[in-house]
């Protein structure tokens, strides 16, 4: 039977050496096993309940396209480029070693487990109820870049270690869970009812931008920088520990809850009917600016500096304990604790 076009319960095993081009197309419950060595190009297309196992070595290019309940297992070594596109309830398992580029696109109920080692670039795009899991075995190590884009009720779980860059963009009812360790940069942008949970450890930079009824939960430890921008009815709970810088900007009926411990700098700017409860402990600097009917509640402990500026019918409640400095400036019918101008009620509790 011809190895290039096979039908009906066929097994295909292909091994190539030394600058070979392999094109394989299979239909109807076929198993394809491909092993290539030394600058080989492999093109595999499968239809209808096919299992594809591909192993490549030494500068190989592998484009794979699968349709209709296909299982794809790909392992690559040494500067390999893998491009995988799957449709209709496909399972893709990709493992790469040593400076590999992996591009994965999946549609309609696809599961993609991806494991990469040693300076790998992984680009994953998923559509329509796809689960992306890249933490199976050993996660990401050593200078990895992970850009992820998801659409339509996708769950993304990303865990990274050791100088990793993670860029996640999600649309339409997506859940994103990101955990990073050791000098990681995380950039997350979400649209339309997305849940984002981010936990970072050890000198991580987190940048989160969310739109349209998004819930963001951010927890950071040990010299982390967190920048959060939210628009349109967003909830942002943020907890930071150990010399963290938090910058939060919110627009349009946003609730921001910020708790910081141990020499944290918090900068909060809110617009348009925002509620901001802030609690800080242990030598924290808090700078808060609010506009247009905002409620700000600030509680600080242990040598904290709080700077609050409010405009246009803002309510600010500040409670401070233990050698705290609170400079407050308010304008236009604001309720404030310290210094006020223009028909303002002032109250302050200090110990």
In summary, what is this structure?
The protein has about 350 residues and is an all-beta fold. It is about 0% helix and about 65% strand.
Throw out a few tags for this protein.
351 residues, elongated, 3 domains, 17-stranded parallel sheet, disordered C terminus, disordered N terminus
Please, could you describe this protein's structure?
This protein has 3 domains: 1-128, no CATH class; 139-242, no CATH class; 255-351, no CATH class. Helix content is 0%, strand content 65%. The strands form 3 sheets. It has an 18-stranded parallel beta sheet that branches. It is built from no helices and 37 strands. It is mainly β.
The biggest beta sheet is recorded as: 18 strands, parallel
Termini, distance in Å? Answer: 88 Å
Q: Globular, elongated, flat, extended or rod-shaped: what is the shape?
A: elongated
The fraction of residues assigned to DSSP E strands is: over 45%
Estimate nothing, just give the exact number of structural domains: 3
Q: What does the radius of gyration come to?
A: 26 Å
Low-pLDDT parts are: 1-9, 134-142, 337-351
The number of helical runs is 0
**Arithmetic mean pLDDT:** 64
């Amino acid at each position: 039977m011809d190895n290039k076009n096979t039908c009906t319960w066929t097994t295909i095993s292909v091994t190539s050496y030394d600058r070979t081009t392999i094109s394989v197309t299979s239909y109807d419950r076929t198993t394809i096993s491909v092993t290539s060595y030394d600058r080989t190009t492999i093109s595999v297309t499968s239809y209808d309940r096919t299992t594809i196992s591909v192993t490549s070595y030494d500068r190989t290019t592998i484009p794979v396209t699968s349709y209709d309940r296909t299982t794809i297992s790909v392992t690559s070594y040494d500067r390999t480029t893998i491009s995988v596109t799957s449709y209709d309830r496909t399972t893709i398992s990709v493992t790469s070693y040593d400076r590999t580029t992996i591009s994965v696109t999946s549609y309609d109920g696809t599961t993609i487990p991806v494991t990469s080692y040693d300076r790998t670039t992984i680009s994953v795009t998923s559509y329509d109820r796809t689960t992306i899991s890249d933490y199976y075995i050993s996660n990401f190590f050593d200078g990895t870049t992970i850009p992820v884009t998801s659409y339509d009720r996708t769950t993304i779980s990303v865990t990274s270690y050791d100088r990793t860059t993670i860029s996640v963009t999600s649309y339409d009812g997506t859940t994103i869970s990101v955990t990073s360790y050791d000098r990681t940069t995380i950039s997350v942008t979400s649209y339309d009812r997305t849940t984002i949970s981010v936990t970072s450890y050890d000198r991580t930079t987190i940048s989160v931008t969310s739109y349209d009824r998004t819930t963001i939960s951010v927890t950071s430890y040990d010299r982390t920088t967190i920048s959060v921008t939210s628009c349109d009815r967003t909830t942002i709970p943020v907890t930071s520990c150990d010399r963290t810088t938090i910058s939060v900007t919110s627009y349009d009926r946003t609730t921001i809850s910020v708790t910081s411990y141990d020499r944290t700098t918090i900068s909060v700017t809110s617009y348009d009917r925002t509620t901001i409860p802030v609690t800080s402990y242990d030598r924290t600097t808090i700078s808060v600016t609010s506009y247009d009917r905002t409620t700000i509640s600030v509680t600080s402990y242990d040598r904290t500096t709080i700077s609050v500026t409010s405009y246009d019918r803002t309510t600010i409640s500040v409670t401070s304990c233990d050698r705290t400095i609170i400079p407050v400036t308010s304008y236009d019918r604001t309720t404030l604790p310290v210094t006020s101008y223009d028909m303002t009620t002032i109250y302050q509790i200090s110990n």
